[in-house]
Amino acid sequence: MKSLRTSLVILLSGALFAVGGCMSSSQNSVPISVPVEPNPPPAIEVSPLQRVQGASVRLDEFDRRAQQLPGTDESQHRVLMEQVFADLVIVLPLLEGPEADAVFRQQVRLIESTQNQITGLPTNLPSEPLIGTGLRAANNAMQDMFAQQFPDQMNLTKPLSALGDKLDALDTAHDAANRQLVADAVRMMGGIMRQMDDALAQRLQQTTQPSPAPSTQP
């Protein structure tokens, strides 16, 4: 299964590049570059407790940021979304854990690339294609995490499906309407990631609970 999913990286990169090219051409935007997956980075030793606590702290910041969206105008919206993507680059790997595969790492790199490109995007070019690509990459990463790390959390099925529908609606909405959909999607992502973090915390509690002492006969 791992080899099959890893082999999808090439197809995934090509598909994302094609989508990015089409979106940028139709909306007079800059091309969206897709980062190439390098050799797997060395695993960072982080304990399960540090992962859960780190994700929880970062999610608090993410939620505060999400409540500020969509901002008062396009300029503020870009600044907030740049920060949202910066948060996602940190939170998603914490939730995924040290055994992330190439498909997941590619999605995170695409989110990071989106963040960097928003920073340098000229003000006369729309940010909608870039933001849409980054959010879809985050959604794909969450879908991957659900299948690999949280298949027992069936309460995530409906929120993930609703998030996909929300992102599909970005294709036909522009300007203020698009920004509002983005704000809704970001808040939905925050809820999904919070549920994943809670599931990790429950697993950690179960594994650290001391075994009951054996009863002694009088």
List the helices and strands and how they pair.
Elements: H1 2-26, H2 48-68, H3 74-96, H4 102-119, H5 128-148, H6 157-168, H7 176-208
Q: How would you portray this structure in words?
A:
It is globular, with a radius of gyration of 19 Å. It has helices spanning 2-26, 48-68, 74-96, 102-119, 128-148, 157-168, 176-208. Helix 6 (157-168) runs antiparallel to helix 7. The protein has 7 helices and no strands. It has one domain. The chain is mainly α.
Give the terminus-to-terminus CA distance.
Answer: 54 Å
Write the H/E string, N to C: HHHHHHH
Summarize the amount of helix as a percent range. over 70%
Number of domains: 1
Output mean pLDDT.
81
Count of strand segments:
0
Largest sheet: none
Keywords summarizing the entry:
mainly alpha, single chain, 218 residues, globular, disordered N terminus, 7 helices
What's the gist of this structure?
With 218 residues, the chain is an all-alpha fold. Helix content is 70%, strand content 0%.
